């Protein structure tokens, strides 16, 4: 049976309500205490509606996170990895946007809850890495590869290590709240990852 | 009333049993589901014995983590931050030991559970940072300060940023399990933090 336009609209609305409810709730109660029942109640749908589309709360949250990441794109916070030819400027642009996103209250609580859940649940962590994290890391790697090809990076640069040198300190400061997460921090990090901290002796 | 030697020994044994039970349990069930009752049962003591010494499960776990860190020292995994004059070698030595510790099953599950709990509970996170994390970061900063004074680092090097450039990627890879956490990774990280990834043009 083909859906009527009205039914399709209702379906989209329910789907959206479920994803929103899942994100809000995981930020409020954490991953462990989240239930399909609570998501259904918050979204104003029956439990069976959720189970028709998703087999588990992990699956709901994965789609919710993907939708949230997609929204950030649409809102112009992310319009593809820039390539102006100036690697430092491009990395600063993206890391500043990441700082803004991590500090955005809509994003922060669910992102913390899911990171914490993945850290203690290897299977969940692996699913999130595969669907959500690795595609993002691949965009950084592609930009760094172009820079390496253009002779801007040492020819033996380990691209994956470089990506983790950028995202590792950012994630560390965000997750552990050791110091304020600012644009100035993002800028300094990019400069030091590219240039190093050791004194270069000019002969 | 002064304790007799026997009473003091019993006291020490109970204390040790409680801290061990707390670490084992938090690794098994996570921070949220951990209770003083469960710790008491596992340690074979009464609840009141725990409450005599600690006001909350967070306080028990903080002392348990400090005791675990102290043990690692005693076992020679950590004998103070080395200063051989060779900064790269000293940093690699410490980061390799940190890799070993993070991959040690005795340490890994409780450390993950507590990091996850601190990430979603700002008050708990702040207490752990103050008592456990910041004293460790201060040791890195002190070693880097000596290197800066010796002219081995750029004079304007931000010591705190440099510490987070070392520990951030390590913690990221450990917590998110993006790639294997190895000594080779620790070595490459130290080399790149010191030297940067940008191509240095020799005129």
Protein topology:
Two copies of one chain form a homodimer.
Chain A: H1 5-29, H2 36-43, H3 47-53, H4 57-74, H5 87-102, H6 105-120, H7 122-149, H8 159-176, H9 183-195
Report on the architecture of this protein.
2 copies of one chain form a homodimer. Chain A is mostly helical. Chain A has 2 domains: 1-57, Arc Repressor Mutant, subunit A (Orthogonal Bundle), CATH 1.10.10.60; 76-195, Tetracycline Repressor, domain 2 (Orthogonal Bundle), CATH 1.10.357.10. Chain A is built from 9 helices and no strands. Chain A is elongated. The termini of chain A are far apart. The interface between A and B is large, with 54 and 54 residues.
Short description:
With 203 residues, chain A is mainly α.
Class by SSE composition of chain A: mainly alpha
**Judging from the principal axes of the Cα atoms, what is the shape of chain A?**
elongated
Q: What kind of sheet is the major sheet of chain A? A: none
Distance between the termini of chain A: 78 Å
The oligomeric state of the chains shown is homodimer
Output the CATH class name of the largest domain in chain A.
Mainly Alpha
CATH architectural category of the largest domain in chain A: Orthogonal Bundle
């Amino acid at each position: 049976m083909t859906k009527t336009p009205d039914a399709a609209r209702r379906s989209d609305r329910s789907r959206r309500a479920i994803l929103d409810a899942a994100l809000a709730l995981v930020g409020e109660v954490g991953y462990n205490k989240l239930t399909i029942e609570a998501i259904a109640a918050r979204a104003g749908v029956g439990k069976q509606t959720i189970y028709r589309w998703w087999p588990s709360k992990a699956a709901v949250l994965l789609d919710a996170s993907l939708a949230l990441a997609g929204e950030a794109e649409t809102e112009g916070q992310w319009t593809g990895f820039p390539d102006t030819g100036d690697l430092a400027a491009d990395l600063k642009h993206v890391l500043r946007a990441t700082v803004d996103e991590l500090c955005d209250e809509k994003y922060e609580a669910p992102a913390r809850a899911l990171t914490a859940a993945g850290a203690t649940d290897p299977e969940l962590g692996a699913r999130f890495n595969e669907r959500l994290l690795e595609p993002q890391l691949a965009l950084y790697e592609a930009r760094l590869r172009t820079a390496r090809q253009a002779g801007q990076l040492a020819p033996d640069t380990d691209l994956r290590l470089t990506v983790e040198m950028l995202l590792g300190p950012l994630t560390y400061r965000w997750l552990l709240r050791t110091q304020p997460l600012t644009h100035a921090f993002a800028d300094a990090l990019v400069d030091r990852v590219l240039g190093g901290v050791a004194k270069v002796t000019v002969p």
